[in-house]
Amino acid sequence: MGPYYTVDILDRLPDDGNRYEVVHGELLVTPAPRALHQEVVGRLYEGLRGYLRGHPVGHAFASPADIRWDRTTGVQPDLFVVPLSAARTMDWRAMRDLLLVIEVVSPSTARADRFPKRRRYQEAGVPCYWIVDPDRRSIEVWTPTAITPVIEQLRARWTPEGTTEAFEVDVEELFRPV
After folding, report:
1. Are 38 and 80 in contact (CB under 8 A)?
2. In a domain, 121, yes or no
């Protein structure tokens, strides 16, 4: 068993192009993302920002970020939405109540996104967690109590509390060629 990491140790790691995160003391290191990953993140971010302009229940951010719930967890979700009150602080420490988290998996992040990070988001009570898989052309939708995800291959929806209209993603359109 390796060392037990904290966010204090995380803060001292080098700025070398890798993404460093810690979940329950486990260090997660991932290289710079693929171009496909960045394209999908960009499309989702653009859609989310547009949706939230019309349904102002929160504000969307894209990684890099610094979300911490305790000394043994510091994550950087690809995309996430926080309540407007937290977003207006412009202080990562105030952004703990995540309304939606989206991780776009790649071969180097799939294990971390599907296991330790997913479990931690569930423990934190994140109402909706999407694992977007460009290789499988699908979106896994997780809720805090889910044992298995709902797999969406046509359309994924997120309906935040306080709204009646969902943010919808057409899966085929999301993965269309450039």
Report:
1. no
2. yes
Q: Are 142 and 122 in contact (CB under 8 A)?
A: yes
Residue 62, domain extent: 34-174
Q: Is residue 22 domain-resident?
A: no
pTM of the model: 0.94
Give the model confidence (pLDDT) of 107-154 as tens digits: 999 999 999 999 999 999 999 999 999 999 999 999 999 999 999 999
Number of domains the chain contains: 1
Is 8 inside any structural domain?
Answer: no
Residue 50 sits in a domain whose CATH number is 3.90.1570.10
Residue 29 lies in a domain: no
